[in-house]
Specification:
One of its GO terms (molecular function) is hydrolase activity. The protein has two domains: 35 residues, no CATH class; 135 residues, Nucleoside Triphosphate Pyrophosphohydrolase (Alpha-Beta Complex), CATH 3.90.79. Helix content is 21%, strand content 44%. The chain has a four-stranded mixed β-sheet, sandwiched between helices. A hairpin with a 5-residue loop joins β2 and β3. It is elongated, with a radius of gyration of 19 Å. 21% of the residues are buried.
């Protein structure tokens, strides 16, 4: 069976700094039609950075959509025409002050494919000494370095509550268990 939904018509109902929102009428595989509300996102990167002391570099920030602060691995939106590895290096340095010595791509994944096309590219970074973060004027973060055990406890306590960071914690645990 072909599950493809063919777009019949569409309208952009919102154009923003980070996302656009489209409403599309689609033809369904059974011949009927339906509406789809779609969030369009330029893509993002996230970076797993571990210090020489084996601490994970995290940022603590308030997330308005959640109405709470959470711990996250450094991440950010890709700029138009920017390659993911360039975004990864830029975001790591801007948010934490750490400049990557090397970047290794781990995976790419969709965050919410039921309504959003955001694709996150996950990298692991080799880092050295921290510099000074230089975040955007509307971005407020606190850099923290925590152990893998502390990160796993933060997941259990819902202090780490986003998929990219939970994925990173699991990735690091698996990597350590394989050694």
């Amino acid at each position: 069976m072909d599950f493809t939904e063919k777009t019949i018509s569409g309208e952009r109902i919102y154009s923003g700094k980070v996302i656009n929102v489209d409403v599309e009428e689609v033809g369904l595989p059974n011949g009927k039609t339906s509406k789809r509300e779609l969030v369009r996102h330029p893509g993002a990167v996230a970076v797993i950075a571990v210090t020489k002391e084996n601490n994970i570099v995290m940022v603590r920030q308030y997330r308005k959509a959640l109405e709470k602060e959470i711990l996250e691995i450094p991440a950010g939106k890709m700029e138009a025409g920017e390659e993911p590895h360039v975004t990864a290096g830029r975001e790591l340095e801007e948010e934490t002050g750490y400049k990557p010595l090397a970047l290794k791509k781990i995976a790419s994944f969709y965050t919410a494919p039921g309504f959003c096309d955001e694709l996150v590219h996950l990298y692991e970074a080799d880092i050295d000494k921290p510099g000074r973060p230089f975040t955007d004027e509307d971005e407020f973060v606190q850099v923290e370095e925590i152990s893998l055990q502390e990160a796993e406890e933060a997941v259990q306590q819902n202090l780490i509550h986003d998929a990219k960071t939970m994925y990173a914690v699991q990735y690091l645990r698996l990597r350590i268990n394989e050694q």
